[in-house]
Amino acid sequence: MVNWPLVKYITGKLLQTFITLLIILTITFWLFEALPARPYDLLTQSPLIRPAQKEYMIHLFGFDKPVTERFFIYMKNMLTFDFGISVAWGVPVSDLLNERIPRTLFLFGLSVIISYLLGILIGAYIAWRRGGIADGMSVVTSLVFYNMPSFWIGLIFLFVFSFKLGWFPLTAWPQFVPYTFFDILHATFLPLLVLVLLSLAGTILLMRTSMLETIGENYILTAVAKGIPERTVLFKHAARNAMLPVATAFVISLAFAMGGAVVLEQVFTFPGVGLLYINALFQLDFPTAQATLYILALMVLIGNLIADIVYGFLDPRIRVTG
Length: 322
What we know:
By secondary structure, the protein is mainly α. The chain has a domain at 101-321: MetI-like (MetI-like fold), CATH 1.10.3720. It contains 14 helices and no strands. The two termini are 16 Å apart.
């Protein structure tokens, strides 16, 4: 039997996501259009570039067309994932993204998974033992890391452990090929540690808050009164029911991990999507920069959509009323 309220809810979220994506693409285009420089401006700085070559580049990348026509071509290309040729590197933008996206997903995805596994366990435990030393120390430490700027702690770790102690390389990716999986883990350990600490803090605080609400419920008090073992009550009753907001935040965090790539990849010189975006901006590579922003925005929107759909299946009010 079809659950029409749920179908209506999901359809509405899909439409909302698509409209948001169109708005983001439109804003991105006009922001780049408002920049005072154009990719072909860099060609004028080289005495080796002839005027005819510059004119060819202008025609190749469509800058000789009216702005309205270029806008519709841009929207069509973005929605069909036809990103064109990179101005700076002279290769298809899709090739650059295919090389960089797996690296960024590996680093930031792994950090989110590790931080949520640890955060759920620690948050559930300190909430159950609320008021103790472990609870106080965990909350204070989490608040400190939660409010730390990512680039600041990244620079500190890089200075201490890479520059001073020499335990890890200054560049967060193996420099010589072929390299092994161990080489990748060694090179990416510092940015991974920074990301885990920053994400772990928020997860602990979220799980603790959710647990404190859950352990005050009558069914938890009844389970304790019946003499059910403490560990069983903690993990099978309290923690399981407290994980709904945490699970939803986990899905969203996987998407926002891509957005966080811009800052930390620059700090650790990690060759991912974020560093590609920064380099593309510096070189006025509009096709690459626009495609990178599009992929980052798309990942965030998909994460939000998945979280909304999960809520739709888990919340009975949505299944009944839509």
